[in-house]
Write a structure and sequence with these properties.
8-stranded mixed β-sheet; 227 residues; alpha/beta
Length: 227
């Protein structure tokens, strides 16, 4: 099997239907990818919705931390490449095909795609969107390893990298950045790439205020922990 797609969720009833539909609509051979969803104790209809689909494996992780959930998904994953997104994201039909293209070279262990916001987001949010993609493109293209970071709403990792480096740290925020930095340290800067054509849309983000709240949360965590 080529891909395992891992999606953690908690009370995502508003978005999870569109996420699932986009993953089921991939143009990649159905027998070559699996969908793994991990519920962190949802009290809405999210888990009930997922149970309708025989194509989706559903697991529970009651420790309410997305990295515990992603690590639970890794225990079940059978794919050669593990792809991560979030339940409030949607992806185009060529998403997996694009990640396969990105990871053709055996030296590439992690590929980060481009992230967009809700199609009807504000003009100010669109500026944050452009800035985020431009930042990732610049850092990874120029191999500025001290600035490397990760984001698990649109990231692919070879299963062999997890076997080498271990699973995600269960820090509340920095697990994705941690695995990216460890990979670059142990395997060289070219083991992590940014690939524009693997796209995901973060449907929760419609305004600049939402962007600022997320940036504040991440910034506060990094300031307190140094991670």
């Amino acid at each position: 099997m080529v891909f395992s797609v891992i999606v953690p969720f908690f009370n995502e009833e508003k978005y999870i239907k569109d996420c699932v539909n986009s993953l089921l609509a991939q143009d990649f051979p159905k027998e070559e990818y699996e969908l793994i969803f991990i519920d962190s104790g949802s009290t809405d209809g999210s888990a009930s919705f997922i149970r309708q689909f025989s194509q989706i494996q559903l697991f529970n992780e009651l420790r309410r931390n997305v990295y515990f959930a992603r690590n639970r998904g890794l225990q079940a994953a059978r794919g050669e490449i593990i792809v991560f997104t979030d339940a409030d994201c949607v992806v185009p039909a060529d998403w997996l095909s694009r990640f396969q293209e990105a990871m053709q070279g055996p030296e590439v262990l992690i590929a980060l795609g481009s992230v967009y916001f809700h199609p009807q987001c504000s003009a100010a949010a669109r500026l944050f969107e452009d800035l985020g993609n431009a930042r990732a493109r610049y850092i990874f293209t120029n191999r500025i390893t001290e600035k490397y970071y990760g984001y698990t709403n649109n990231m692919a990792v070879r299963a062999s990298a997890f076997r080498q480096l271990g699973n995600f740290s269960t820090c509340p925020v920095a697990g994705d950045t941690g695995i990216v930095k460890k990979c670059a340290k142990h395997n060289g800067s070219s083991s992590v790439i940014y690939f524009d054509n693997a796209k995901a849309w973060h449907m929760e983000v419609k305004s600049a205020l939402t962007c600022l709240k997320k940036l504040f949360f991440y910034g506060k965590y990094h300031m307190l922990t140094g991670n």
